[in-house]
Amino acid sequence: MHGNKEGFTLLEVLLVMILIAIFSAVIVPNLRRVSPRKQREFFVTHLNGLVRFAWQQALATRILHRIFVDFEKKEIQVQQLKKGTRDTYEAIKGAPIKTWLTIPASYTFKQFFIEGVDELSRYAGGAGSTWFFIVPDGIVQEVVINAIDTASPQRQRQFGLILNPFRAQFTLYDQFQKP
Is 85 helix (H, G, I), strand (E, B) or coil? Predict the structure, then answer.
C-alpha cells in the first residue's frame, strides 16, 4: 500500500520559483526608482529643514545666522556668527539635526538671486560660494534659485525655488522664477 505523501512536486516548486523571479524582476526595480520630481521635493524638504532650523536658532540665540552654499563642493550648510567677531562664521556644533545638505550631482544652479542680485553672474567665471542671512528678528533675505535637474535621461528639467522671508520656507516651481 502506497501512502499519500504530502508535499510539492519538483515541477510545482520550480513553477513557484519562476513566478517569484518574474515578480521580482518587474516590481523591485520600480520600488527603488524615485522620480526626479520626488527627488526635487525631497531636496526642498531638507533645504527647508535647514533654513527653518537656522531661523529658529537665530530667534532663540539672538545671533546672526547664514545659509552658506558652496557650489564647488555642492554643499549647503547652516552657520552662525562666531561670538566676539563681526564677520567670522562657524558651523553649528552639537545640533540635534544634521546642519548641512549635499546638493544632488544632477542639479546645476543657473541663477541664485539674493535680494534681486544674481550671485552667480555677479563674479566673472561664476561664484564659488554664496550665502544668505537669517537675522535675529527672524527675517530671512529674499532668495530665488533657478536650477536644472539632469537626472531624467529623456530631458533636463528646470525648476525654481522662492524663499518666503517671513516663513523661512522655499516653494518649489516647475520653471524658472524671477526675483
Answer: coil
Question: Domains of the chain: which residue ranges?
Answer: 35-173
- Residue identified by cell 563681526 is 86
Domain 35-173 adopts which CATH fold? minor pseudopilin epsh fold (3.55.40)
For the whole prediction, is pTM greater than 0.85? Answer: no
DSSP-derived letter for residue 174 is: S
pLDDT digits (tens, 9 = 90+) for 97-119: 899 999 999 999 999 999 999 99
Give the SS3 label for residue 5: coil
8 Å CB contact between 108 and 81: no
Residues linked to residue 134 through DSSP beta bridges, in sequence order: 65, 140
> DSSP labels for 11-28?
HHHHHHHHHHHHHHHHHH
